[in-house]
């Protein structure tokens, strides 16, 4: 394992994908160029950037949650946070169909925070037992998903836009979205990286962490808040692209080890790579039909979750 | 002024009072063993000193300063704790793990300076793990893992070290190895407070015994003063004889 | 960890009489309400009587007899089938969370059905629907149990559920992909959560024989399941082969789930909740439990159907959403109850 080398290679892979994301598409390059620079920069480049940001956000959120609850099965989607963000954003979208996109983010964040609060209340007697946490999360997501679906059904005229968005798709994302997303990321991502050492200490158990001078309760609170916010921001722009938050930290841990100082940046990049890859495949697999990127990440992510499950020994 | 002074300490879990108005002084430079029957509050006392638990009433003073009123990083530079069941994280090498001992001193980002690295290396050498340093911590055996944790505490460079039942889960050879290591640390000037279950080991390897029963101090003093037939009878409700240890001459308990 | 179904709560004689009467009254009220309520037409009780006595003379009565009645009856039978399937699964796995939806069986059946209908696998297209869904149900059920650790009660109950959730996520993603590629994305929502739109007498005739057969057979196995509840060794000692019984019951579960999914699509939570609810009233004797589950499941679904049309009247909510909206909080409660043991 060469953590530093890997950490240097990841940006290269990401860059290569960004370039191919811009070049590949239903129009071949020649035609696209002749049609003017608009297709490449306005349509594809912006969309690729949204994918990178959202993927990085989901990956980081997953790494933080796994660090806080010391649970390899946890991730924002498994514990219901993304569904909560989705439900709140859908509600906003359906009640005010013409609302500016920038409002989606605060609404998604508040939905996610509410879900998290509900979740913490539900497990207040159980501590953070990994399996229970996931079970409760599953039930909570099922309920929130039902609410979201019901919202959609009860507003049949706005369904199409919301449906595309919900399944996790990057269709029609552009510079407007990048502009709204970027400030959030510029605030949240550095805050996340600052937590790296504290998360390392937290991984040693509450008592050891406290013994080494980490404030366990505060660390936990802030890390959860940040992770919920990152997940919500990502969901607000590309919908529930499932399983990215779950698998990116695991892949990153395999590549660069468990020290968060390296793990967090690596997770962000792997998350970006995954979402970008899923989006490129979604656009190019069966043109002109476009698959939701979320479906593709599920197809990869669910088997990986099953693999983790068969290896997990903490019952 | 005592080095570590516990004044009028009351600790409870919810309604249940574990320690009641406890007063205790720990001497600098000695190994003090906390002993007593299960549920007597010895682990609770250790955790309160390590500010994992907050007292309901009373204070813990380290060199005259209240531990529970200080910044937690500052406390971590003065005392180190090895809990009973620390969690070994995935994908972290032993060197990384020991490096975490520098957390209270180093940058908040976790990057180690050259001095830090040197301290980590010394700590690894002291516990004899320098050759395994690049292995994942999860690959270690029980005895090695416990030594890795000790190395982490060494890297923390504190004067006071708290060990909560460090010999649990170890076989007898590794238990003795660990207790000897504890003696070495003490000879380098560290004050050690340790919770032990085995009274004979406590007498053999510690300078002072503190006996607790139902959250109250029963006796404190050297093993010879403390470990008597009457005490074993009254605290553990066990009939026993006390004989000198054939090797070290310290008191040894033999059940009747 | 409580993997065993609670055997406490032996019902008194009075409960035995009162409960079925109450249930039947509720069922009847539900059937009537769902048949004539929540309609843009003004339907009356007399239309309902005309419809069920087979003399639908008015337009309204014809509407009830050709559109509403088959729909309500399919809902009732589907509810009974799912509830019985859940009770059977909980009986043989001794896992209180066992149910067709959580163990991925519904999703497997639905996925293969979509494969068959979209012509993705030509072999499937030529087979009868119920065979296709049964294959899907069996495959995904087996996969979940395997990943969850095996058929017997030794496995960790939560682990199986998580395996079920992941397999479901995978199958739903596959189904979605197929529907989108087949350019049926309009019906995605209806399809994946279970719906009773476009149900007529044809579907009713496809559904009831299977459910009836499976119900009778499972009732014949009820006493053996009671013995299995005493533990495998005890059951073997009393002359019941646990392996054979589990196989037989699994087949029945697959028939029940497959028949239902083929007609209504996957409907969640009925199979999970009804057996728990029923057990509170009847105790764990499967001879009583199974029929009570059937009636309760039917009642729940009929009412859910009524609510599904009332909720956003005049448009219609897929019934699977209604059961999920009611069911998920109950599931949370169940999961937290299980922790306390």
UniProtKB/TrEMBL annotation, chain A:
Signal peptide: none annotated. It is found in: Cell membrane. The keyword Chloroplast does not apply. The chain crosses the membrane at residues 45-65, 77-97, 103-123, 130-147, 178-197, 222-251, 263-285, 291-309. It is a multi-pass membrane protein. InterPro entries: ABC_BtuC-like, ABC_transptr_permease_BtuC. Gene3D superfamilies: ABC transporter involved in vitamin B12 uptake, BtuC (1.10.3470.10). One of its GO terms (cellular component) is plasma membrane. Keywords: Cell membrane, Membrane, Transmembrane, Transmembrane helix, Transport. GO terms for biological process: siderophore-iron import into cell. GO terms for molecular function: transmembrane transporter activity. Pfam families: FecCD (PF01032). PANTHER family: FE(3+) DICITRATE TRANSPORT SYSTEM PERMEASE PROTEIN FECD-RELATED, FERRIC ENTEROBACTIN TRANSPORT SYSTEM PERMEASE PROTEIN. Belongs to the binding-protein-dependent transport system permease family. FecCD subfamily. This is Iron chelate uptake ABC transporter family permease subunit. It comes from Oceanospirillum sediminis.
UniProtKB/TrEMBL annotation, chain B:
GO terms for biological process: iron ion transport. The keyword Cell membrane applies. This is Fe(3+) dicitrate ABC transporter ATP-binding protein FecE. InterPro entries: AAA+_ATPase, ABC_transporter-like_ATP-bd, ABC_transporter-like_CS, P-loop_NTPase, Siderophore_ABC-ATPase. SUPFAM superfamilies: P-loop containing nucleoside triphosphate hydrolases. It comes from the Bacteria. Belongs to the ABC transporter superfamily. Coiled coil: none annotated. The keyword Zinc does not apply. Residues 4-239 form the ABC transporter domain. GO terms for molecular function: ATP binding; ATP hydrolysis activity.
Automatic annotation (TrEMBL), chain C:
Gene3D superfamilies: ABC transporter involved in vitamin B12 uptake, BtuC. SUPFAM superfamilies: ABC transporter involved in vitamin B12 uptake, BtuC (SSF81345). One of its GO terms (cellular component) is plasma membrane. It is found in: Cell membrane. The chain crosses the membrane at residues 17-38, 72-89, 101-121, 127-148, 160-181, 251-276, 288-307, 319-336. Keywords: Cell membrane, Membrane, Transmembrane, Transmembrane helix, Transport. It comes from the Bacteria. GO terms for molecular function: transmembrane transporter activity. One of its GO terms (biological process) is siderophore-iron import into cell. It is a multi-pass membrane protein. Belongs to the binding-protein-dependent transport system permease family. FecCD subfamily. This is Iron chelate uptake ABC transporter family permease subunit. It comes from Oceanospirillum sediminis.
């Amino acid at each position: 394992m060469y953590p530093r080398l890997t950490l240097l290679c990841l940006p290269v892979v990401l860059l290569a994908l960004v370039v191919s994301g811009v070049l590949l598409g239903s129009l071949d390059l020649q035609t696209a160029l002749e049609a003017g620079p608009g297709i490449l920069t306005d349509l594809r480049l912006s969309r690729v950037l949204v994918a990178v940001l959202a993927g990085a956000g989901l990956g980081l959120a997953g790494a933080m949650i796994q660090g806080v609850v010391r649970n390899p099965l946890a991730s924002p989607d498994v514990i219901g946070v993304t569904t909560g963000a989705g439900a709140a954003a859908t509600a906003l979208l359906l009640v005010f169909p013409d609302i500016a996109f920038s409002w989606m983010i605060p609404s998604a964040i508040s939905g996610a925070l509410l879900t998290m609060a509900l979740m913490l209340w539900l497990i207040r007697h159980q501590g953070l037992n990994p399996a229970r946490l996931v079970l409760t999360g599953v039930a909570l997501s099922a309920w929130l998903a039902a609410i979201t679906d019901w919202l959609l059904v009860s507003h049949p005229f706005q369904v199409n836009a919301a449906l595309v968005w919900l399944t996790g798709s990057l269709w029609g994302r552009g510079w407007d979205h990048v502009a709204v997303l970027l400030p959030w990321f510029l605030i949240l991502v550095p805050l996340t990286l600052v937590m790296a050492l504290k998360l390392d200490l937290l991984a040693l158990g509450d008592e050891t962490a406290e013994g080494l001078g980490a404030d366990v309760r505060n660390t936990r609170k802030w890390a959860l808040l940040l992770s919920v916010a990152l997940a919500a921001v990502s969901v607000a722009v590309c919908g529930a692209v499932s399983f990215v938050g779950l698998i990116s930290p695991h892949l990153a841990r395999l590549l660069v080890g468990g020290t968060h100082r390296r793990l967090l940046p690596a997770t962000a990049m792997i998350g970006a790579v995954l979402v970008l890859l899923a989006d490129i495949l979604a656009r190019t697999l069966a043109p002109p039909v476009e698959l939701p990127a979320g479906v593709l990440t599920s197809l990869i992510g669910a088997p990986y979750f099953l693999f983790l499950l068969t290896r997990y020994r903490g019952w | 002024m005592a080095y570590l002074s516990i004044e009028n300490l009351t600790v409870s879990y919810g309604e249940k009072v574990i320690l009641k108005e406890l007063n205790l002084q720990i001497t600098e430079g000695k190994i003090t063993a906390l002993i007593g029957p299960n549920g007597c509050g010895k682990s609770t006392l250790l955790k309160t000193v390590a500010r994992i638990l907050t007292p309901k009433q009373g204070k813990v003073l380290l060199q005259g300063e209240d531990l529970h009123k200080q910044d937690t990083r500052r406390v971590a530079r003065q005392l180190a704790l090895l809990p009973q069941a620390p969690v070994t994280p995935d994908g972290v090498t032993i060197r990384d793990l020991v490096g975490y001992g520098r957390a209270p001193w180093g940058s908040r980002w976790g990057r180690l300076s050259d001095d830090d690295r040197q301290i980590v290396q010394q700590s690894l050498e002291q516990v004899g793990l320098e050759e395994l340093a690049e292995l994942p911590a999860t690959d270690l055996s029980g005895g090695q893992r416990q030594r890795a944790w000790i190395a982490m505490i060494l890297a923390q460079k504190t004067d006071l070290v708290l060990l909560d039942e460090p010999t649990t889960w170890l076989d007898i050879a590794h238990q003795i190895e660990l207790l000897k290591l504890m003696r070495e640390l003490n000879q380098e000037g560290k004050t050690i407070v340790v919770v032990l279950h085995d009274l004979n080991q406590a007498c053999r390897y510690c300078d002072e015994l503190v006996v607790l029963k139902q959250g109250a101090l029963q006796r404190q003093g050297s093993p010879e003063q403390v470990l008597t037939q009457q005490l074993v009878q009254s605290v553990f409700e066990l009939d026993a004889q006390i004989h000198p240890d054939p090797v070290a001459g310290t008191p040894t308990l033999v059940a009747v | 960890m409580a993997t065993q179904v609670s055997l406490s709560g032996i019902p008194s004689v009075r409960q035995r009489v009162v409960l079925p009467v109450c249930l039947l009254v509720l069922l009847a009220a539900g059937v009537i309400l769902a048949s004539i309520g929540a309609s843009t037409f003004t339907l009356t009780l007399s239309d309902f009587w005309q419809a069920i006595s087979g003399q639908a003379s008015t337009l309204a009565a014809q509407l009830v007899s050709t559109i509403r009645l088959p729909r309500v009856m399919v809902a009732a039978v589907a509810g009974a089938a799912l509830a019985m399937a859940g009770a059977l699964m909980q009986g043989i796995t001794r896992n209180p969370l066992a149910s067709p939806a959580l163990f991925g069986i519904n999703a497997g059946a639905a996925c293969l059905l979509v494969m068959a209908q979209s012509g993705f696998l030509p072999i499937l297209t030529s087979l009868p629907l119920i065979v296709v869904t049964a294959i899907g149900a069996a495959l995904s059920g087996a996969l979940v149990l395997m990943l969850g650790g095996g058929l017997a009660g030794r496995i960790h109950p939560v682990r199986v559920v998580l395996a079920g959730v992941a397999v479901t996520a995978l199958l739903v993603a596959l189904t979605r992909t197929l529907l989108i590629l087949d350019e049926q994305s309009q019906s995605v929502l209806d399809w994946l959560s279970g719906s009773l739109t476009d149900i007529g007498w044809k579907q009713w005739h496809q559904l009831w024989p299977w459910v009836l057969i499976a119900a009778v057979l499972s009732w014949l196995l009820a006493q053996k399941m009671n013995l299995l509840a005493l533990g495998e060794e005890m059951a073997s000692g009393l002359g019941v082969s646990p392996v054979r019984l589990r196989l037989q019951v699994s087949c029945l579960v697959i028939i029940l789930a497959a028949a239902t999914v083929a007609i209504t699509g996957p409907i969640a939570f009925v199979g999970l909740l009804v057996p728990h609810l029923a057990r509170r009233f009847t105790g764990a004797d499967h001879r009583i439990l199974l029929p009570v589950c059937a009636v309760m499941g039917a009642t729940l679904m009929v009412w859910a159907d009524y609510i599904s049309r009332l909720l956003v009247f005049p448009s219609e909510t897929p019934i699977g959403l209604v059961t999920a909206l009611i069911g998920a909080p109950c599931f949370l409660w169940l999961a937290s109850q299980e922790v306390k043991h």
